[in-house]
UniProtKB/TrEMBL annotation:
Its cofactor is Mg(2+). It is found in: Cell membrane; Membrane. The lineage of its organism: Bacteria, Pseudomonadati, Pseudomonadota, Alphaproteobacteria, Hyphomicrobiales. Catalyzes the initial step of the lipid cycle reactions in the biosynthesis of the cell wall peptidoglycan: transfers peptidoglycan precursor phospho-MurNAc-pentapeptide from UDP-MurNAc-pentapeptide onto the lipid carrier undecaprenyl phosphate, yielding undecaprenyl-pyrophosphoryl-MurNAc-pentapeptide, known as lipid I. This is Phospho-N-acetylmuramoyl-pentapeptide-transferase.
């Protein structure tokens, strides 16, 4: 919205700043942050009154959770979603198709997560939205988004998978790209969802990934930088830096209230939405594989669940004391803060490795 003030720059030079993506990205961070600060306490109060007993706590989880987390309201993702969407609409170029596709995925996944959280709180059970129905809806949103992204990006990489660390290596997937991209978006949403199990555990790696993709989107969307770094040039994706900035600002605001002991949980409302947003941005910028590196922590959490389930079904034995893997380390005697901070460190290291792909070619 404010982007269009830049059109006044021809007559009033002060308005030129609204043309700069870097300025608007910074504005999106600050706006989303203060939006959550301003409306967050009211949202928490309202959700606590509506939910009563709060989010159901797993009885098979670490014993301390039943004491420290019981009664904490969920659906805190509403704070993140509202702040990020408001800030994005305020600061981004609304004529940019990539912005609308990412918002479509973010809000769509958030709605699925909200319904899941609603059912869990209503039933006071971990059985929310049926997993098959949920996955079908996620896949549908992902496929629609990827078809739109393939139309927006155009040739020569509209349906291609690009490989990091290797100059010009691309695999044309043809019509399968839409299915592949839909899978990436769906997998990203659910992997962040699995990671969201401890106070602050998921939101910081999400912000780290969003910061990385703010840079990637800016570079990939620039003719000059993409040519210098030997990156694929995807016109228009630089605007996604503003969306990433809004996610970072809203995430920082949420972390203020989610820091241990959490006043509110993110819930599926936030985790699915944030993961879906990262997945769609990765597909738009043609950095799907880099997302798997930068978001390696989310991949690790997901793999731990897959290994645990597969091992138990095939052998009747468990590989980990509890899955996802962050609970395994709790059972080994790590405190919650140790698990969270050490996992944050891992996410920072993986982010640096992922970003190195921009130069090492």
């Amino acid at each position: 919205m404010l982007y269009f003030l830049g059109q006044l720059g021809d007559s009033l030079t002060a308005f030129n700043v609204f043309r700069y993506i870097t300025f608007r990205t910074a504005g999106a961070v600050v706006t989303a942050l203060f939006f959550v600060f301003l409306f967050g306490p009211g949202m928490i109060k309202a959700l606590r009154l509506k939910q009563g007993k709060g989010q159901p706590i797993r009885e098979d989880g670490p014993a301390g959770h039943l004491l420290t987390k019981k009664g904490t309201p969920t659906m805190g993702g509403l704070m993140i979603l509202s702040g990020a969407v408001f800030s994005t609409l305020l600061w981004s170029n609304l004529a940019n198709g990539y912005v609308w596709v990412v918002l479509f995925v973010t809000v769509g996944f958030g709605a699925i997560g909200f319904y899941d959280d609603y059912l869990k709180v209503k039933r006071m059970s971990h059985q929310g939205f049926g997993s098959k129905q949920r996955l079908v809806l996620e896949a549908l949103i992902g496929v629609i988004a990827c078809y739109a992204l393939s139309q927006l990006s155009g040739e020569p990489y509209s349906n291609s998978l690009l490989f990091p660390f290797v100059k010009g290596l691309a695999l044309n997937l043809g019509y399968f790209f839409v299915l592949f991209g839909g899978f990436v978006i769906m997998a990203a949403g659910n992997s962040v969802n699995l990671t969201d199990g401890l106070d602050g555990l998921a939101i910081v790696p999400v912000m780290v990934a969003a910061a990385c993709f703010a840079l990637i989107a800016y570079l990939v969307g620039s003719v000059t930088f993409s040519e210098y770094l030997l990156l694929n040039y995807v016109p228009g994706t630089a605007e996604l830096s503003v969306v990433c900035g809004a996610l970072i600002g809203a995430g920082l605001g949420f972390l203020w209230f989610n820091a241990p002991p959490a006043q509110i949980f993110m819930g599926d409302t936030g985790s699915l939405a944030l993961g879906g947003a990262l997945g769609s941005i990765a597909v738009a910028t043609k950095h799907e594989i880099v997302l798997a590196i930068i978001g390696g922590l989310f991949v690790l959490e997901t793999v731990s669940v897959i290994v645990q389930v597969a091992s138990f079904r095939l052998t009747g034995k468990r590989v980990f004391r509890m899955a996802p893997i962050h609970h395994h380390f709790e059972h080994l005697g790590w405190t919650e803060s140790q698990v969270v901070i050490r996992f944050w460190i891992i996410s920072f290291v993986l982010a640096l490795i992922g970003l190195s792909s921009l130069k090492l070619r």
